[in-house]
Every structure is written in structure tokens, then in C-alpha cells.
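Before relying on records like the one below, remember that each one covers exactly one chain. Contacts with other chains, cofactors or solvent are not represented anywhere in the record.
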Amino acid sequence: MTGIQTQTALETLCNFVDGRSVTSEGDLLDLVDPATGQVYGRAPISTGAEVDAAVDAAQRAFPAWRDTTPAQRQLALFRLADALAEHAEDLADLESRDTGKPRPGLVGDEIEQSVDQLRFFAGTARELNGRAAAEYVPGFTSYVRREPVGVVAQITPWNYPLNMAIWKIGPALAAGNTVVLKPSETTPSSTVRLAQLAAGILPAGVFNVVLGDRTTGALLVDHPVPALVAITGSVRAGMQVASAAATQLKRVHLELGGKAPAVVFADADLKRAAIGIAEAAYVNGGQDCTAATRVIVHESVHDDLVREIVAHVRAHIRTGAPHEEGVFFGPLNNQSQLDQVSGFIARLPAHTRVETGGRRQGQSGYFFEPTLVSGVRQDDEIVQSEVFGPVLTIQPFANEQEAVALANGVPYALAASTWTTDHATAMRMSRALDFGCVWINAHIPFVSDMPHGGFKQSGYGKDLSVYGFEDYTRLKHVMTSLV
């Protein structure tokens, strides 16, 4: 983002409200290609009146959408998933342009995942479970209703724009809620296209998109109508949302930052661990809250693992432009993120060592080399804070107790992995690691059927799975007299 634009030759995106595209009266922001640093379009900073209009549309649409049957909602989401699959190439082009992701794998990876996740949530629409009706008090029958909460405000990040939109709208719509969603100001294109595709499938006002920056997001969060606010973003953003929502006692769903450890024991298959950890560290340029960011390895194999990771990175992990062949990850998303990652490396203490990478790549675009830093200490900034870039640290441990202390000794608690050939060690570690997801001899695979979410400063609430679906419902106890 380079500031407010006034030229008219560039494509300008619109909000999507009440089933149609709506031109904004707000100022316009540049949309910048992260692979070149060049401006290619514009998007508005939606005004308070425009946020009001989107929320009003969602509020008007809610009663009718709430009263549809689960089967009707399921069918609508299945049709939307089919539309995503049909327009996969178009969506991949938009996603690659906004994010700089390598284009060749987008359809077979992220777009197909989004389709699968939306189909999963279509299925959950018919899984409104509660306690069986029973007579808990003589003369009265009690049962539980699981109901939608109402209008839901949602904010999504720039690292997986379409995928995160699906994670948000899928469970919300399946449960019978209506949605106003604000995508990141740097990557709004695929979300706008998603809303356009939904227009022929969902009733007007059920799914609305407003574009803008933090100002627009704050207007949406502060609006009195939404009953729940859901955000995927930074810890700082999550804290601001939680604080603002607390003034109106709104429910909040937070999926925030991560600092995932990969704990490697001496008996692990080091080559397998090196490949798995490196690919989990540098996927999407490390711009993933579950990315492996800290290797914690037994001191007896520390140097061996460093050599294995460096060898794999130099041979197979390459950054480059979206349409280049053999590229593993693209540029960082924006200038601010490039500055943040570069700053972490510039501030490394003298006791650390950059084993590979550590520099910006090229003079145009926001590329940064895959980086491994050794010699770090637990209280170093690069260990304690989320870099959100292609930077991996490695530190040794002497025993299992120390490994657990190092792994858990950060403010984040989203994801972790442990690498060992001993079943008992794996079971102990899966219990001891204080993270919302723990992988054993792997790092970063996802399935729609299992919950995603963390503890501590990584937030609360679950995405994916029936648990994510239930987060968008409320429980009502109904008791009736039998007399």
C-alpha cells in the first residue's frame, strides 16, 4: 500500500452489499503487486454510512435466512462450492496477483481446499445437535435449541484471503447467520469475486463485503448490531477487537498469531524432519500462523540437523515471481511486512549465526530469502515474537523437560510438532505441548474435519470442524409443562 490514489485508469473494486456491487464514496487505496511493487488497482476505504448499509442489509436478510431449513442452507453452500470449483482458475489468478503466491499450485492446493472446506460446512448445516429431550424435573420436558447468533462481523487477513473467507463464512452461513466481511486492504480481490459468485446463489443481504483499512474494520466491530465478531489476524488486532467488543458484551472469535515449535529428538529421522520442518517453515513465505518457526533439537544432533536443513533449503526452497518455474514461495505481501522481517534480522544479537539466507532478494518486489538462524537464546526477540516471514530459528535442548519448557516458553500457543520414533515420547509430548494443534512426525497438514485454534495469545474459538460450526450458534433451553 502506497497511499491514496487519484488516477482513474486503474481498476477500482466495489463493495458488495445486499446482492449487488456498490460504489464507495470513501478514499481509494492502492492495490500493489507484491512481486513488482507496482500499483495495479484501487480499493475504497468504506465510510461509516457504507458499513451501516451493509449491516442493515444483513440484519434485514437474517430472519428469512435463519428460518430456512438446514437442507436449504446445505444446498446453497454446495452450489457455492461448485461455483468456486468452476471459477477456480479465475480465483487463482486474483489470489496470485494480490498475494504474489506461485500461480502453478494455487488451484490444486488452496482453491481445492476452499471448495472442500465449504462442502464440509454445508454438511454441518444438518448437524444441529443438542441434548436429548428428557424430564429432568417431574412434570416438565426440557430440550435444547441450537440457534444462529444473528448478524456476524468478520475480518480476514492477507496471507490466505480466499481460504480465510471460506473459514469464516462457511460455518456462519451454515448455522443460519448473515455476514458482513471485511477482507484485508491489500488482498481484497478474491473475496469480492466470492461475493459476486454467491449473489446468484444466496439471498440478497446474506453475505456482504465491505472494503477498507483498520478504520473500516473498527467501524464494523463497533457497530451495535453484530452479535459476534470473528477475526483472523495479529495479536494486536485481536486485542483491539476483543477490547472494543467487550464494551457491548459481544461474542468474539479470535484466531491470532503463532510461534510454532518443532521439537526434534535424537532418535528422529533427521532427513525426514529437516525436509518436513523446512517446508513447513517456508510455506507461503512463512506468512502462516502455524508455520514452523522454532526448531528445538536434542544437543547431540543439533549440528547434523542444521546441515540437513541448510542442504534442503539451498537445493529445493526458492523464492521468486508467481509465474517462475520451481518457486516454493513468493514475495512477502507488502512493504511493511518486508520491513518487519528485515528488522528482525538486522536486530539479531551477536551470539546468533545466520546459517543461510538473511537478506532481501532483488531490488523490486518484496522478496526475502529463506533464512535459518542458529545460536538463539530463549529470551531473544526472534524467539519470543512472531516474525511472520521465511525465518526459522534453531536451539538445542539437553532433556525432555527442557524441550517442553523451551517449546511452551512463548506467549503463543497455536501449533507445534514433535519428531521422534518412540511412541511413548510422542504421547508424552503431545500432552505436554501447550498448543491447540500438535503434529507428530509432521507439521502443517490440515483437514476440514478437525478443529484449528489456539490458546494464550493465539486467541480462542475454533475454525474448521463441527466445533467451528458450533462457535457460530447459541444454545437455548426450552422447558414445557406436561400438565
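The first strand starts at residue 11 and ends at 12.
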